[in-house]
Amino acid sequence: MDLQRFNQQAGQPPCAYPVSWQVNGVTLDARKTVTFRQNDRGQLTPLP
User: Fold this and answer.
1) How far is it, in rounded angstroms, from Cα 23 to Cα 1?
2) 48 in a structural domain
3) Listed residue (40, 41, 15, 10) closest to 26, CA to CA
4) pLDDT (0 to 100) of residue 27
5) 2-23 as b/e, with b when 16 or more CB fall inside 10 Å?
6) Residue 7 belongs to a domain
7) What pLDDT does 3 receive?
8) pLDDT digits (tens, 9 = 90+) for 1-48
9) What is the pLDDT of residue 37?
């Protein structure tokens, strides 16, 4: 998943999530701002 493209389509600022969802098994919700690093396999890894 291209996170920037997803955010543009959703009309959300980068790293802002309107609902809870999962990326690579990590649950995100609207109360948290999560920064991602993309590895060489295209996987998104949440940074602490």
Assistant:
1) 9
2) no
3) 15
4) 66
5) eeeeeeeeeeeeeeebeeeeeb
6) yes
7) 67
8) 566 666 555 555 555 545 556 666 666 665 556 667 777 777 777 676
9) 73
Q: Does some domain include residue 23?
A: yes
Q: Give dist(CA 37, CA 19) in Å, integer.
A: 21
Tell me what pLDDT residue 10 has.
Answer: 55
The two structure tokens encoding residue 23: 């990326």
Structural domain harbouring 35: 3-43
Transcribe 3-37 into DSSP letters: HHHHHHHHT--TT--SS-EEETTEEE-TT---EEE
Q: What is the number of domains present in the chain?
A: 1
Rounded-to-10 torsion of CA 35, 32, 9, 26: 70
- Record the pTM: 0.21
